[in-house]
Amino acid sequence: MPVQHSLLLAVLIVALTSIGPLSTDFYLPALPAIARALGTDTAGAQLTLSVYLLGFGLGQLLIGPLSDRFGRRPVMLWGSALFVLSSAACALAPTIGTLILARLVQAFGACVGPVLGRAVVRDVYGPQEAARVLSHVSTATALAPLVAPIFGGWLSAHLGWRSTFVVLTLYGLALGFMVWKVLKETNRHPDPHAIRPSRMLANYGVLLADRTYRGALLTGCGAFASLFAFISGSPFVYIELYGMSPQQMGLAFGANVTGFIVGSTLSARLTRRLGADWLIRSGVYLGAASGLLLAVLALAGVHHPAAVMGPMWGVTAAVGLLLPNATALGLAGYPKMAGAAASMMGFAQMGLGAGAGMIVGHSVQASATPLALTVAAGMLFSLAMWALLLRRRGSKA
Questions:
Q1: Rounded Cα gap, residues 94 and 91, in angstroms
Q2: What is the C-alpha separation between 176 and 120, in angstroms, rounded?
């Protein structure tokens, strides 16, 4: 592959995988303002996040098989078009109900980028290099949730919450143009039967019967649920409970994202030397310890931003260590159905994350304790799934 095209492809993959965090983190500082402007409560505003995540997960179940049948490129182009139209509808939404519906449709367009970005990495780089490349992609993608809430907080404060969705519309247009110009088809094994319901069910059955795939999926699910519980609850904890401005909330959120950047950077550097199994094990131990510290501080009545930010930095670092390696481990054995494998993984992560977000959204109004307990529960779930399904594999490696 020519160096110039390889660089452009890397930029495109980062842009594709960034569309998920951008679509959530960019408008996070505006959530309290959305609740006030559209006459709803914390749970109603948070529902725009959870519904998005549910749509994001459900869409992936179909997107992966479609790309295994028709190719990555055409599915990405259609997804980009849907994202643009739905983002514009979000910007114009007159009621909270309309915004929730538009966010659901937006999720179907947005899910194309991350799931097929991962599938393209598997297509191009193969199983051995995929973990290292995905770690590099995760590091670069982490810049999105680092910068997005800061910029989104500034936009919300100065131009109103609708401006955040205008920017997402423009991003979708730019992404669609990049796919059209840069991406060549990478699916070398198109499956003419991939979208038959019987084949889809059979493929998902094969995946779930694989102990390694199941362990990688469930370990990643717990970590993602912890992360999304924090994403859902942090605007209300930082702004409503601790009195931060949207800009300050964006900075606080960005500080926590640096943990993910550190974790994924270490993962990219150490994958070849230590292997995915060692890094996943380190991630689940660090995440469980950090989640428990967060819960203990909350239950002890330590109500201060530092009591959330400090332990959450450890949690996000743990997610950066384990999630790229769990993804690569799950996809490694399935070159002919990488799209379906990535779809199932994304669906499970998003479903559990949406549930965690709904729990936090309905209980975080008066205290940070529900957020802390949900984060801790997610990381302990990851630790348990690793211990049950992957620990033996790691001891053999």
A1: 9
A2: 16
* Nearest-angstrom CA–CA distance, 128 and 351: 29
CA distance 227 to 28: 14
Integer Cα distance of 283 and 135 in angstroms: 13
Nearest CA among 112, 148, 287, 53 for reference residue 120: 112
Q: Where on the phi/psi map is residue 41: left (φ > 0), alpha (ψ -120 to 50), or beta?
A: beta
Q: What is the DSSP letter of 332?
A: T
Cα(106)–Cα(336) distance, integer angstroms: 28
Alpha carbons within 13 A on the beta-carbon side of 7: 3
The span from the CA of 54 to the CA of 356, in Å, is 11
User: In 65-112, at which residue ranges do the beta strands (DSSP E only) sit?
Assistant: none
pTM recorded for the entire structure? 0.70
**CA nearest neighbour of 220 among 64, 357, 331, 81:** 331
- In the numeric block, the tokens 């069910």 are attached to 201
Amino acid in the structure at residue 284? V
3-state SS class at 194: coil
What are the pLDDT tens digits along the chain (397 aa)?
A: 444 456 677 778 778 878 877 888 788 788 888 888 888 877 788 788 878 878 887 887 787 778 878 888 888 899 899 999 999 999 999 999 999 999 999 999 988 887 777 777 767 776 556 666 666 666 666 667 667 777 888 888 888 889 999 999 999 999 888 888 877 877 777 777 777 788 778 888 888 888 888 888 999 999 988 988 888 788 778 887 788 887 788 788 888 888 888 888 888 778 778 877 888 899 999 999 999 999 999 998 888 888 989 999 999 999 988 888 888 788 777 777 766 787 788 788 877 777 777 777 666 566 778 888 999 999 999 999 999 888 876 555 4
- Please measure the distance between the N-terminal and C-terminal CA atoms of the chain and give it in whole angstroms: 32
C-alpha–C-alpha distance, residues 303 and 317, integer Å: 23
